[in-house]
Design brief:
By secondary structure, this protein is of the alpha+beta class. It has four domains: 116 residues, PAS domain (Beta-Lactamase, 2-Layer Sandwich), CATH 3.30.450; 104 residues, Beta-Lactamase (2-Layer Sandwich), CATH 3.30.450; 85 residues; 139 residues, Histidine kinase-like ATPase, C-terminal domain (Heat Shock Protein 90), CATH 3.30.565.10. It contains 16 helices and 13 strands. The strands form three sheets. A five-stranded mixed sheet has the order 9-10-11-13-12, with helices on one face. A four-stranded antiparallel sheet has the order 1-4-3-2, with helices on both faces. Helix 11 runs antiparallel to helix 12, helix 11 crosses helix 15 and helix 15 packs antiparallel against helix 16.
Amino acid sequence: MRPDDGYRLLVQGVRDYAIFMLDPTGLITSWNAGARLIKGYREEEILGQHFSVFYPAEDIADRKPERELEQAITQGRVEDEGWRVRKDGTRFWANVVITALFDGAGELRGFGKVTRDMTERRAAEEALRASEERFRLLVHGVLDYGIFMLDPGGHIISWNDGAQRIKGYSEEEILGQHFSVFYPAEDIADRKPERELEQAVAEGRLEDEGWRVRKDGTRFWANVVITALFDDTGELRGFGKVTRDMTERRAAEQALSERRRLLNHLVEAQELERRRIAWDVHDDSIQAMVAVGMRLQLLESRLPDEHRPVVHLLEESVRASVGRLRNLVVHLRPTTIDQHGLVPALAGYLQDVVAGWDLDTDLSADLAQEPPLPIAITIFRICQEALTNVRKHAQATHVEITLNSKDGGTLTRVSDNGVGFPDPLPDNSYQQFGLLEMRERAETAGGWWSATSSPDTGTTVQFWLPTAPAQESR
């Protein structure tokens, strides 16, 4: 087989490229299988036609086919990408190379034209560009986070609007600077920026919270994530850095921590005062009245019969007063919560005190953990006040107490089947004072309180107190 025959078979057999010849005027003189697949024409119907048949109408009007042949003659070849038209009128994106063919004498013999359908690749590239543009818009549009990139040496190479808002630098004045400009002097002296990059390279990422510095020199508390970025070969290409201004959250956490500390002191002081009063009543008043009662009993036994009833009534009054004082002591100092826990303390109070009120009681608890002592005491005191209100005002026969862990706290409900109360309560209502005290206790502890009721439907007191430990500032 002659070499020319081999080249002809090669060209004719190529299916991924349209390869064909034009005469010096642009008329098609050869056609391969790839041309038929890409453009849709059979060889017999396309030979002799001008190659401009493949161009959109706007390109023909602009003389693009002719200009491309002129350029190929002048420069030897021309390469172009653009829309072309198939036989059925559909368009495809083509990469086209036109080569001017000259003989040994330098005479133009025609043109070689190679076309490849790039529609799928262009669609993929367009999709990638659109995705990158959306991502760029997303990153640049985020205002709550400073998102930017560093080169492998730690110099800033990109900047978003959130970074400008948080740190105060415009893009043009920060690009190229080392990211250590955001660190306090003591951190720079301690090589903290360099150590963070080293740790990000070693572990893939690093997360840190600490002080950072704005352009104007003010400090803010930042949460920072640095991610090392490697290419497919494993080479370090830089770092992604995301910064969030946590100053307000840190201040809120510190305020919450301080509030809980004050609550602890308040509850401790209240309980100490209650215990002191309970001890005074138990060791002084009750003992003195018990002694008076004993003397009255002795006196009654020595008096004539006609005087005994009066002394007996006095002795009974003293005994009743002693009973009331003992109940007061129990109310002031119930079963010790710090020894037995909240639920046993409530159960003991229901058994020792509420059982004497002709009230059926149910207590159920599903707690993930024992609340901190100040919160447990506050829950107990609110339940105690709610039960006192039931006894004095509800005319109820049944009361139910439930405790559940919910949303990082303890949700408590005290429900009765009593007469309920109108909404709103009269301004001078004692019950309103009791409700106010419960609300204030709950809100002082950082929680909430509510009561739902209507006449003859009973009342439900519901409150939630946070019981998760306060997060320590790092």
